[in-house]
Amino acid sequence: MAERGRARSRRSGGRAQSSSPRRPQRARREDRRSRLRRGLSATRASSAAKVLGLSTTRRAALVAIVVCALAFTLAVPLRTYLSQRADVAEQEARQAQLERQVDQLEQRKADLADPAQVEAEARRRLRYVMPGETPYMVQLPEDKKAAEQRAHGEPARPEGAWYQELWDSVNNGE
Question: What average pLDDT does this structure show over 47-61?
């Protein structure tokens, strides 16, 4: 204690601490506390570095490696989560589409439960007639040509200029 008292008196130029007219006693105490705190935190940081035996650069490199390891550890599960979320959204959209299709088919089934509707479908699509009725079929020249081409298995080709048809026949080897 005596040494400390002497050290203080030397710093203050041989004057005692209590006789300092410039600083009040309270300000000096707060100043001492802040210096003590700064000294303790610096001592703690330096002691941690001494315990680990690492310099500042090595500590920064170690922190960077740890951060990278955490990023790589989280990247794969995050990617899996996002891809699964996209798959779920796609499957929900597909399910909604299928539900709409089921609703349409149920509506069609309800429509076909009516005998009048079935009869109208048979007349229109299958060209059925009731007994005693006389069916008439009107064929236009365009319809006849398309029907002949479908019967022979040839695809319907648009008519072009004579030279185009000649060139197509030469290229196709007909």
Answer: 73
Q: Which helix (H) or strand (E) holds 118?
A: helix 115-126
76-106, pLDDT tens digit by residue?
A: 999 999 999 999 999 999 999 999 999 999 9
Return all residues near 62 (Cβ < 8 A) that are at least 6 apart.
54
Look up tokens 């299928």; give the residue.
Answer: 98
pTM for the full predicted model: 0.38
42-68: b or e for each residue (b if 16 or more CB lie within 10 Å)?
eeeeeeeeeeeeeeeeeeeeeeeeeee
> Could you give the angle at the alpha carbon of 99 between the alpha carbons of 97 and 104, nearest 5°?
95
Which amino acid would we find at residue 15?
R
Query: What CA–CA distance (Å, rounded) separates 132 from 118?
Result: 19
Structure tokens at 112: 């076909």
Pair 99, 93: CB distance under 8 Å: no
For residue 45, the 8-state DSSP code is H
